[in-house]
What does this fold into?
Amino acid sequence: MRVVVFSTFVLSLATTALASDGITDLQTMTAFLTDAALQIWSTQITNGTAAYNGPVTPTMDLIANISAQVNASKASLEADQNAFTNGQTGAVETTYLSYIDTIPTFAQAIESQGRTWHDEMNAPVFANLQSLGAAIQAYGSSLRRVQLISQTSMIRTIRAVSAVSNAQRSWGRPFNYPGKRSVIRNGLRGGAQRV
Ligand SMILES: *[C@@H]1O[C@H](CO)[C@@H](O)[C@H](O)[C@H]1NC(C)=O
Ligand SMILES: *[C@@H]1O[C@H](CO)[C@@H](O)[C@H](O)[C@H]1NC(C)=O
Ligand SMILES: *[C@@H]1O[C@H](CO)[C@@H](O)[C@H](O)[C@H]1NC(C)=O
It folds into this structure.
């Protein structure tokens, strides 16, 4: 499965992902994750598996991109907490909750791709989902350690990590999914054909 993330909004925000302001990081990641999930669903519905061979971003790269953004934001926090909060300590948690709540939606889209016929190899996606879960967990723990987020946010973080690990299970076979191509029409999957 490959995904196009073409929103210019997201593209322009993504270039600022390494900024040291944590609220901007969180907003950027929320927009990126929301856009990526929408792209995955709309590609499945519009094009079925036909889209998977297009000039688009492999799932493994998309996931690595998100992990890199999460890790970069964690590094910014650890480098300079004042720059990270930028005088808006209270806004961190609200923004964090928006970000963490997009993870299960994104993970479900990735899980659905793992269960559908795809020509991308499973192992790199599986490995990158493992890193993404670790990145999300570590970022949440760092924010919690300096009390920028509450215990409630940590509980949601744990749920988000478990959604990522469910998605990982759907990419758990050693090679790619060997089954059938299927076409989704009018929101229903049907008309399966042998590859
Ligand atoms: C569906 O495929 C067409 C032709 O390859 C492409 O132009 C279009 O962007 C795809 N749509 C989605 C939602 O991926
Ligand atoms: C993540 O993806 C965006 C949009 O495709 C790109 O501009 C950015 O350079 C990527 N970042 C990393 C760290 O790969
Ligand atoms: C991000 O951090 C996690 C946890 O420390 C690590 O497992 C992962 O490899 C890192 N990912 C990237 C893309 O740097």
User: Anything to note?
Assistant: Confidence is low (pLDDT under 50) at residues 1-19, 50-55, 183-195. Helices lie at 8-14, 22-47, 59-79, 81-85, 89-115, 122-145, 151-169. The pocket of 2-acetamido-2-deoxy-beta-D-glucopyranose (ligand 1) is lined by residues 4, 42-43, 46-47, 51, 54 (CB under 6 Å). The longest helix spans residues 89-115.
